[in-house]
């Protein structure tokens, strides 16, 4: 599962550095880069990320002020402070910040913070993830066990769950499903999410792609080049 995050920092160089460090990490997707607490709250009215990387010394609302307001609003996003000032650490942790990373940002330290918060997110999701998805055809509805799904493929504009020899149409978009499915489901291109636990083999294909096959199905899924590159980091076959 991909975790989403916002970067909030008034300095362009700091936002750029964080972007360069995080963009290659397959488990993370940067959804917004914002310059102030005010911009953050405006964006939060539209969508809420899993994690907020937050500077402290900013014009207007400070990072500590932002954290206080996030807590008052019961925002569920995890907050990691990225700052040049160590003196605010006690206030940050008193406000339930997930971590506190000092500038200049070190890749290993940032990855450690992200790994810790990813584990917190995994535990929270494990308590709330659905066990089934609903498939509806006409007036008939059916529960599809998530662990029985080999892959979900877009077919003529419809998301279709493949479970062995059976297929079930789904109403949700792949982006919505990506956020609801367990971590062993992986998006291998724009039109497909696969269940890594049901893979039987991955064959090298043209242009750096992979042809995926499944244990209980004759289904074959061809990844994108980027999907193949990211999937290789997770394969345990």
From TrEMBL:
Protein name as catalogued: Transcriptional regulatory protein YpdB
Record keywords: DNA-binding, Phosphoprotein, Two-component regulatory system
Coiled coil stretches, renumbered: none
GO cellular component: cytosol; protein-DNA complex
GO biological process: regulation of DNA-templated transcription
UniProt xrefs under Pfam families: LytTR (PF04397), Response_reg (PF00072)
GO molecular function list: phosphorelay response regulator activity; transcription cis-regulatory region binding
SUPFAM superfamilies, alphabetized: CheY-like
Gene this protein is translated from: ypdB
Lineage, broadest ranks: Bacteria, Pseudomonadati, Pseudomonadota, Gammaproteobacteria, Alteromonadales
Residue span, Response regulatory domain: 4-118
Domain of life: Bacteria
Residue numbers carrying 4-aspartylphosphate: 55
Domain HTH LytTR-type positions: 144-237
